[in-house]
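To: structure subgroup
Subject: Chain for Friday's discussion

All,

I'm putting the inputs and outputs inline so they're searchable in the archive.
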Amino acid sequence: QVLLVESGGGLVQAGGSLRLSCICTGRSLSGYVIGWFRQAPGKEREFVARLGRGGGDTDYEDSVKGRFTISRDNSKNTAYLQMNSLKPEDTALYYCAATLSASATRLLTDWDNWGQGTQVTVSS
């Protein structure tokens, strides 16, 4: 089991950028597949991005492709989500997730370690 703690959220104007961080403690992050999810008010939690253990296997939800970049620094036990060209519809609580399963998909049930979330608010 790992403990995930997100940070970096905040209030930003449309078109701006934020970088979210997810610090992993308890075990080495290098063995985990990393994911970012988000939940807007009144909506279900949804997949945003996924990064494999090796760092080269990425998957992005269509609406964030070309704007968001998921990355990891295993030496710092930290994962990141760089978010550029932010839009008001990106407003949500953003969660970091991790799993040992290399076959984890976009389904929430595939992920067994979750952070508490960091709020991102994009004003128009």
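Points worth raising on Friday:
The radius of gyration is 13 Å.
The chain is about 0% helix and 50% strand.

D.
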